Amino acid sequence: MATSKLSQFGLQHVARGIGRLTPEVIESGSGSHVTMVGGKRYLDFTMGIGVANLGHCHPKVTKAIQSQVGQLLHGQVNIAFQKPYLELVEQLIPIMPHKSLDTFFFWNSGSEAVEAAVKLARHATKKQNIIVMQGSYHGRTMGTMAMTRSKTVYGQGFGPLMPGVFSVPFPYCAQCSVAQASGGKYSSSNCCMDPIRQLEVLLKQETAPSDTAAIVIEPVLGEGGYVPAAPGYLERVREICDKNGILLVADEVQSGFGRTGKMFAIEHWGVRPDILVMAKGIANGMPLSGIVARKDLMDTQMPGSMGGTYGGNAVACAAGVAVAKAFKEERILENVNARGQELSDMLSKLRSDPKTADIIHDVRGLGLMQAIEFKSGAAGSIGSKVQAKCKELGMLILTTSIYDTLRFIPALNITKEDMAKGCQILKEAIEEVAAGQKPQETATRGQALE
């Protein structure tokens, strides 16, 4: 079928509720690139939204998948243990951000893993309410839609949603009203900690600690704009949880498995989560997710209360084992930090360059989870224009957040040459868009909402 006919077929028969960057059809992927039906090749700075962390079709992961398919395709977890599942647990225990995290449950998707964490928290504490962050994204299932606060589109028209969910501000310094009131100066290194005050007020006004099972938090907001927590914030949240008998759940679906330069983002702050949620990069494209907690917490659940037909699939777990081994053998974290510094340096130069500074509100991120937020005005989304120009120049990139933000999600093993190419494309695209912006079309701060 010709490319145009394939695209038209997809538009006709695939659910309209799925948004997409391009109507093109991907035929193959290799490393940091994807090739479309018809031959168009792109440098991929999306990686399946942070799933193919080791690049498309990583040879060791591919080999592990092929080998496992010939041995055991599916070993149902409610029937018996299966070897890849246990091997993956063995690989993961040493890289957990705290030694107390030693008992695992694997499922299929990030949303399911978040719901597993909620089930565990509610059952273990015998309390019902959950606190989430404004700007957070936890999924699109009926339960996680209620927890997602990054955009209303994820839950719009699907109510009533799961009750017992409350939200508080995240320390998003670039959009902090306190910082803006003090002259527009903001710095995550000197956070006002107003979000902590708001959390303390919430626990006094809306959901008492005796009714609150967990605080669920992304150490780096994902869909909310790639915003790392301000220094000191997560430490304070941990203190509040300990004081009030509330479990701290770290949602590391997008920020985990090396994306920020450490295996898990929460390691940057040295904070112990009670429950850690993982997915995306865990198996480099195979559907696999999981939660991990300390054994006494996990053991509160009765046998049969957790499970699922495809949860912890043998092939997906074999891929996960190969991913964990590749991280050590190929020194992936070293590459993340080196390439991340190159990306950060380029973004910082754009922010201070007179040719582009007038359209840039903020640059931020950790490792290879970085973003640039634009100032928005009457001309509409600058980020979308830069995205379109990058695609024209041969690179796929994604917007995110209600604010005008581009996020960068390259492969964690991206080469120095491909990173330089991506930075050059991005620089050219931003400079061209900046040159086309009239002075009156840019605002003084990034307040235009999508």
Automatic annotation (TrEMBL):
Answer yes or no on keyword Ligase.
no
Cofactor dependence: pyridoxal 5'-phosphate
Keyword Protein transport: yes or no?
A: no
Q: Which residues does UniProt assign to the signal peptide?
A: none
- Look up the domain of life of the source: Eukaryota
Q: Which UniProt keywords apply?
A: Aminotransferase, Pyridoxal phosphate, Transferase
Family per record: Belongs to the class-III pyridoxal-phosphate-dependent aminotransferase family.
Query: Could you identify this protein by its name?
Result: 4-aminobutyrate aminotransferase
